[in-house]
Automatic annotation (TrEMBL):
SMART domains membership: Molybdop_Fe4S4
GO molecular function, one term: 4 iron, 4 sulfur cluster binding
Residue stretches making up the 4Fe-4S Mo/W bis-MGD-type domain: 2-58
Entries under Gene3D superfamilies matching the protein: 2.40.40.20, 3.40.50.740, ADC-like domains, Dimethylsulfoxide Reductase, domain 2
Species in which this protein is naturally found: Mycolicibacterium agri (Mycobacterium agri)
Pfam short name (any one): Molydop_binding
Keywords, alphabetical: 4Fe-4S, Iron, Iron-sulfur, Metal-binding, Oxidoreductase
InterPro entries registered for this protein in UniProt: Asp_de-COase-like_dom_sf, MoPterin_dinucl-bd_dom, Mopterin_OxRdtase, Mopterin_OxRdtase_4Fe-4S_dom, Prok_molybdopt-oxidoreductase
GO (cellular component) term, any one: membrane
Annotated protein name in UniProt: Dehydrogenase
């Protein structure tokens, strides 16, 4: 029997609505849901391959445990018993602080990954917490934290309404957008041009997005902070700063400090370092200032670089100075349906990092995390506080983080390792226990994080499309781990975990005079939550407490989970609204345009300007039919141009006399890669994609291991970090290129 079912795609940040075809209890096809309020039918090749991914025969169906050195299938019961015994033993001997946790990217795309990992971390009481954030967007969090008082006060470009969009270090035609959730990003860029708007792309490579642009600046990798500072310098020097900052002036501190700092970076002084003519920088500043509305949007190329936090900060400095912060067509603050309901404006306690430091290298804590680049050394350096056991959830740091070979050896030395992951891959092959979550079709979907980054407010929920049939859903897997850590044991009822969260949250809300449920009895509210899985009860609670919620009956027209379920194509919550005042949580109650830690870091940038700019630098790239390390096992996605090649300018290829294969040597090691002459590359810049290197023994991804590629992160020794955010420098790494001998 054939039927269809709706499911939000979990495979990237665009959150497209899919219509799945289901035959005899399995997904057999996927197309875009034309009635989806957010994506209106848009889909990419990954979404179209949902069925193959969902049915991948290499996906683990049963837990694995290590017996006599070999990973073998076992029952859920035995797997949890082993976790309780072995993890209990490590904690008993060395304490919960000796257990490290690594959270990977898909946690941002699953209900379980959004709701339960904090409970596991709390249960351990560990400070050894690592995630893909320090390989990705942490600089943006830090910049937002210092400027607005909240590290999650994300600014996104108002794509549908802007007149002038500057995309810096992002390639949304391939990535489909990141930290700016927009289904059909490509279509939105074309619509911008169709309505007479302009697109500028700043990227050392002539990417597919750059090809669409009216203006493409190709700086040397890693130099964007200087380039953006030069834009700021021109805004001041030429009197182009928006009058009254477009109405925001009374809410902004530090404009004069920024003016003083920028004075050291006129275009003529940074031009040689950035490799961009000064007049191009001046033209960009003038156009930004004169556009009716404009938005600057930065992504990976602004984050995983030497000056990541400075660059992320300057993106929003320009949005403020051109009068484009918090106004339609500019850079705006989305408001998701499960965000806390806005409270009256009030000063906050501010943002800081470094409340504790990493054991080996003394890196400051950022958002309670340690840099992923420091994971290996925290495991392989003995002494007090050394990591003795690891829990990884949805992560593959052996390929994603610097120096995978060292991490490989480190993971091998652990007393115990638990992985929650559907695949036996480069990282999970070190596990003593692997607990596999069910495939996406058997999992619920709600975008807790990404809805707060959407370029148009909306709410959508997908319940599981297929039954679990004996599998354990990931919420239950993670809850059971938490119960073990809380001492409840393997027989505890996983619902306890959710009920505890509900009780705590409602107690806090009812005790907050500014909450929509202030003063109400917790029991009365709890009784209003629907029967069903704990994660649905929590989602209902969050929706009802949220900005559009029914406030548990007090606003009868408001959202509940039942209402959201009754609208399977989603509910549109309208275009983004100005809301700066309710977002601000700095101690001053104002935007801090020149926060002290950023001012202090400018000296480092100043020093870099005089640097020798010879030699090759390495950058990364993504492919439309790939997602980090884990989709190379789907045949339809692993074909054609999706290959791990070294792209470089044909003149560089000729000058070095390269044949088919090049030897690339970086601070952390060397790899051999096929050369792909690419006229779109800047001279002196080479590109290799990440997530490859599937040639390690002991993994179980047959398609991927047939076309393994090399691990670009082996070129990186992990010592190069953006100091303010602990984010690894993954772009702009000096490398030597030579013919393979
Ligand atoms: N050189 C270089 N390195 C990079 C980057 C770069 O641009 N260049 N990009 C960085 C970025 S932005 C990121 S986000 C990181 C990603 O770093 P990671 O998150 O460590 O790596 P992924 O490859 O995304 O691994 C995802 C893992 O989750 C598993 N998984 C998939 N679905 C589920 C699920 O539903 N539940 C669970 N529990 N597991 C699941 C997969 O099998 C896989 O093991 O890589 C970073 N590394
Ligand atoms: N198809 C596909 N989609 C994905 C992913 C994927 O692997 N494949 N991964 C997902 C994830 S985890 C993320 S975080 C997002 C990332 O989303 P994006 O940031 O849009 O993706 P990237 O392709 O990494 O784009 C980064 C761009 O920065 C450029 N760049 C590198 N160094 C510099 C620099 O120093 N300065 C400037 N100005 N530019 C630089 C690169 O050439 C590249 O074009 O994509 C998500 N979507
Ligand atoms: S763009 Fe992203 S969310 Fe949309 S179908 Fe492709 S992978 Fe899925
Ligand atoms: Mo990412």
């Amino acid at each position: 029997m054939t039927r269809t079912a709706l499911r939000i795609c979990p495979l990237c940040e665009a959150t497209c609505g899919l219509t799945l075809t289901i035959d005899d209890g399995r997904v057999t096809g996927a197309r875009g849901d034309r009635d989806d309020v957010f994506s209106a039918g848009f889909i990419c090749p990954k979404g179209a391959s949902f069925a193959e991914l969902d049915n991948d025969p290499d996906r683990l169906a049963q837990p694995l445990i290590r017996r006599d050195g070999v990973l073998v299938e076992t029952t859920w019961r035995e797997a949890f018993d082993v976790v309780a015994d072995r993890l209990g033993a490590v904690i008993g001997t060395h304490g919960g602080g000796s257990v490290g946790v690594y959270l990977g990217n898909p946690n941002a795309h699953t209900v379980a990954g959004s709701l339960y990992p904090p409970l596991i971390i709390r249960g351990l009481g560990t400070r050894q917490v690592f995630s893909a954030s320090t390989l990705d967007q942490m600089p943006k969090h830090v910049a937002l934290g210092y400027m607005f008082g909240s590290p999650v006060a994300f600014t996104v470009p108002d794509l549908d309404r802007t007149d002038y969009l500057v995309i810096i270090g992002a390639n949304p035609l391939v990535s489909n957008g990141s930290l700016a959730t927009a289904a059909d990003f490509p279509g939105k860029l074309r619509a911008l041009r169709d309505r007479g708007g302009k697109l500028v792309v700043i990227d050392p490579a002539r990417t597919r997005t750059a090809e669409l642009a009216d203006r493409h600046l190709a700086p040397r990798p890693g130099t964007d902070a200087a380039l953006l500072f030069a834009v700021v310098a021109v805004l001041f020097e030429e009197g182009l700063v928006a009058t009254d900052l477009g109405g925001l002036a009374e809410h902004v501190n530090g404009v004069d400090d920024v003016r003083r700092l920028a004075a050291d970076f006129p275009p003529e002084s940074v031009s040689a370092y950035c490799g961009v003519p000064a007049d191009e920088i001046r033209a960009l500043a003038r156009e930004l200032a004169s556009a009716p509305t404009a938005a600057v949007y930065g992504r990976i190329g602004t984050c995983t670089v030497e000056f990541g936090t400075l660059t992320s900060w300057l993106v929003d400095v320009i949005n403020v100075l051109t009068g484009n912060l918090d106004r339609p067509g500019g850079a705006m603050f989305p408001l998701g349906a499960t965000a806390p309901a806005p409270r009256p404006p009030k000063p906050g306690s501010g943002f800081r990092t470094g409340r504790w430091h990493s054991r080996v290298s003394g890196h400051p804590e950022v958002l309670s995390e340690m840099p992923s680049a420091a994971l290996a050394e925290e495991i392989d350096t003995s002494g007090d506080g050394q990591i003795k056991a690891m829990i990884t959830i949805a992560g593959n740091p052996v390929l994603s983080a610097p120096d995978g070979d060292r991490l490989d050896r480190a993971l091998d030395s652990l007393e115990f390792m638990l992985c929650v992951d559907p695949y036996l891959n480069e990282t999970t092959r070190h596990a003593d226990v692997i607990l596999p979550p069910p495939s996406p079709s058997r999992s619920p979907h709600y975008d807790f994080a990404l809805n707060n980054l959407a370029v148009r407010n909306n709410v959508r929920y997908s319940p599981p499309v297929l039954p679990l049939d004996g599998r354990l859903d990931e919420a239950e897997i993670l809850s059971r781990i938490a119960l073990i850590l809380y001492g409840v044991g393997v027989d505890g009822d996983p619902a306890l975990v959710d009920e505890q969260v509900i009780a705590t949250t409602l107690a806090k809300e009812t005790g907050d005079k500014d909450s929509p449920v202030a003063g109400r009895p917790v029991d009365e509210l709890t009784a209003m939550l629907p029967e069903g899985p704990g994660y649905e009860r929590r989602l209902d609670m969050m929706l009802r407490l949220g900005p559009y919620g029914d406030a548990f009956g007090a606003r009868p027209d408001g959202l509940t989970l039942a209402r959201v379920k009754a609208a399977p194509h989603g509910i549109d919550l309208g275009p983004l609204q100005p809301r700066l005042r309710e977002v601000l949580r700095t101690p001053s109650g104002r935007v801090e345009l020149a926060p002290e830690p950023l001012r202090a870091d400018v000296a480092r940038l100043n020093a870099a300007l005089g640097r020798d700019v010879d030699g090759f630098v390495l950058i990364g790239r993504r492919h439309l039919r790939s997602n980090n390390s884990w989709m190379h096992n789907v045949p339809a996605l692993a074909r054609g141009s999706n290959r791990c090649t070294l792209q470089m300018h044909p003149d560089d290829v000729a000058e070095l006399g390269l044949a088919d294969t090049a030897k690339v040597k970086g601070p952390g090691g060397e790899v051999l890669a096929p050369v792909e002459p690419s006229p779109g590359m800047r001279r002196g810049v080479v590109s290799l994609p990440h997530g490859w290197g599937h040639d390690r023994t002991g993994s179980r991804q047959q398609v991927a291991s047939g076309q393994p590629g090399v691990n670009v992160n082996q070129l990186n020794d992990g010592h190069s970090l953006d100091p303010l955010s602990g984010t690894a420098v993954l772009n702009g790494i000096p490398v030597d290129i030579a013919p393979a001998d």
